[in-house]
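Protocol step 4 of 5: obtain the predicted structure for the target chain.
Materials: sequence only (see below). No template structures provided, no constraints applied. The aim of this step is simply to have a reference model before the mutagenesis design in step 5. Sequence pasted as it appears in the construct record:
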Amino acid sequence: MLVGGRKTRHKLKITTKFFSISVISFGMIIGVLYYGQKHLEAVSAIQAKEARSAWEQELIRREERKIAEINKYKPNGNPRSVIDDLYYMTLTQGEVKIATFGSSVTNGDGASGPEYKWANLLIRYIQGTDGLRNTALISNGFPGHSTEMIILQNYVNNVIEAKPHIILFETFVLNDYGQSIPLQKTRENLESMLQKIKEALPQAKVIVLSPNPKKGEAKNSTGAYYKDYVAVSEEFAAANKLDYIDIYSRMMEVNSNINAFLADNVHPNNVGYRIWFDIVKAYFEQKK
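Step 4 output (structure tokens):
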């Protein structure tokens, strides 16, 4: 009985010792896991803090670069281009909107497809320029409309409602000449349209464009020539201190053969609209 009791006690000691070792080992494992997890959490927290700090520094650098770009293109009295204006407006306002406003030649009548119209060529060029992708075009071409008809039908509101930053204002004088609107009335109508635009959109940049040359420039029933109406466009722009693009003269300088760039007696063909676009593009890039 004694021997058996000793064996039982010995087994109990071994079992107890094994259990103690197991508990200690388990505790050590739990401890390692716990402190390991805490270490990982601490490392992760440091990494997260470092990543957050790096991102904050990057945001600061981006903001500094943006401020530098804004200052670079900010009007300061030095010669600048329309493209410079577009960069500045994009940096300070996001999307920039350019509206066209004019007759059938602003609408692109005579082109064999939309891709050949001068306004579409212009917006593709601008959107393809680094940093100006967010420039939008709002087209307002009214075929057959004189300045008188535009005012009577209140189409100036079409331009105003879009709230453009830049307005390319082709003066409708193709139709004023054809419909024998007196020169003085044309001038008054242009002034009336401009006043309405300025009142509604005081910050908008208005650029005046003459229309293109045409065939058959004899006197109309008022005794005025087509060139007289083009001259009114230039005088109107000068009197209001607006930028002026003389499409009429520049097209003739590029190609004196009018048949080469007209689809009919009035409207440019693809070649003519390409010349028109090149003239406007050069004007947009010119620092003045």
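Step 4 remarks: The mean pLDDT is 89. The first strand starts at residue 96 and ends at 101.
Proceed to step 5.
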